[in-house]
Design goal:
Length: 357
């Protein structure tokens, strides 16, 4: 049986050490997918491991560093954070007891490390890519070159955006998250309220100000709930909101998150596509899994090949809500997405991939 070490080197947390984002969820899901056919272990940042269920802790090794997000992002902090990331990647690669490494959430500095420091050894190294677009100006072309050079040292690439080609001889597409009826079904059957929710991490890539401007012109309820990485921004948003808008700065429990998502007729993903081009969105898939209708930039839906209400300009959202958009056609597409992203189907493809490469 193949022995695989899952490497989660980029743990984001608040100043109290509480994990932020979906990394812990992804860690648990991939562990459960792979354990059916492989002997699986985990090495990850402290906040990731502390967020995993107790049943997994005996398989875990802690890395030294997390990335704290709710403190000022000064130039010095940014530089120190990059050294922390590179150190964590280095420690993962130096694990002598494992011949197969799976980096299941990577950023540019993973590729930077592999380009500059990693020398091919007797290890197989796999990575999961959800974004690879570094093209544009002169600096971006250099980043793209580093990325391409690093890919040559990778044994196999898993990618989560089905319309994003990867320049590598060994690749596999799988979704960000697989579908589990026992996990999502109870939220999908909840009665849908005439409401829009915006959930998840509230970072600079989400156009919350523009979203408030749209909803301030209509009476439709909007609930924004998630962890803001900028307290000043959160306070300013509270001053801008109208009576039909609720804003909370918090980290929801898993049940609260899915319940809010499953009870809402719509879920809005107000991404700035200048920053989010050629990326995937786990929240988009979760929205489809619990039967809520996603409202998102049309580019995001098209790039991921997923159904929803797409807009070129955010003000188009008001038209969708005023016209009380029907969802029969979208619901049929949702059913198909849930079928092809089913856990068993995805797990078999992933296991075959690790055996073949």
């Amino acid at each position: 049986m193949t022995q695989i070490l899952m490497c989660g080197y980029y743990g984001m947390c608040d100043s109290a050490g509480k994990s932020v984002g979906h990394t812990a969820k992804v860690t648990e899901e991939y562990f459960d997918l792979l354990k059916e056919n492989h002997e699986v272990y985990i090495i990850a940042s402290p906040s990731i491991i502390s967020s995993l269920p107790d049943r997994l802790h005996k398989y875990c090794t802690k890395l030294k560093y997390d990335i704290v997000i709710d403190v000022p992002f000064t130039f010095i902090k940014r530089v120190i954070d990059k050294f922390k990331i590179i150190h964590n990647v280095h420690v993962c690669c130096k694990q002598k007891d494992y011949n197969t490494l799976f980096f299941y959430q990577v950023d540019f500095f993973f590729f930077f490390y592999f380009w500059l420091f990693y020398r091919k050894k007797n290890k197989k190294v796999y990575c999961l890519i959800y974004h690879q677009d570094f093209t544009g100006g002169k600096v971006e072309s250099i980043l793209q070159w580093i990325y391409n050079q690093a890919l040559k040292k990778i044994s196999g690439v898993v990618y989560t955006q089905q319309r994003l080609g990867i320049d590598h001889p060994k690749t596999l597409y799988i979704p960000d998250y697989f579908y589990q009826e026992e996990k999502y079904g109870k939220y999908r059957i909840l009665d849908k309220k005439e409401q829009v929710v915006c959930l998840g991490t509230m970072n600079r890539y989400k156009q919350i100000e523009e979203l408030l401007e749209v909803f301030s012109t209509i009476e439709y309820p909007l609930e924004i709930c998630g962890r803001f990485d900028d307290e000043d921004r959160f306070r300013k948003l509270l001053e801008l909101k109208t009576e039909n808008i609720t804003i909370r700065n918090c980290i929801l429990s898993t049940d609260d998150y899915y319940r809010k998502l499953g009870e809402a007729k719509y879920s809005v993903l107000p991404y700035n596509m200048n920053q989010y081009n050629n990326r995937t969105s786990g929240v988009l898939l979760e929205t489809l899994y619990v039967g809520s209708i996603p409202i998102a930039p049309i580019g995001l839906l098209e790039q991921n090949g997923l159904p929803g209400l797409g807009y070129e300009e955010m003000r188009e959202i008001s038209r969708y809500l005023i016209e009380a958009h029907t969802s029969n056609q979208i619901e049929e597409k949702m059913k198909n997405i849930r079928k092809i992203n089913d856990k068993d189907f995805v797990g078999k493809r992933l296991s075959v991939f690790f055996h073949q490469v």
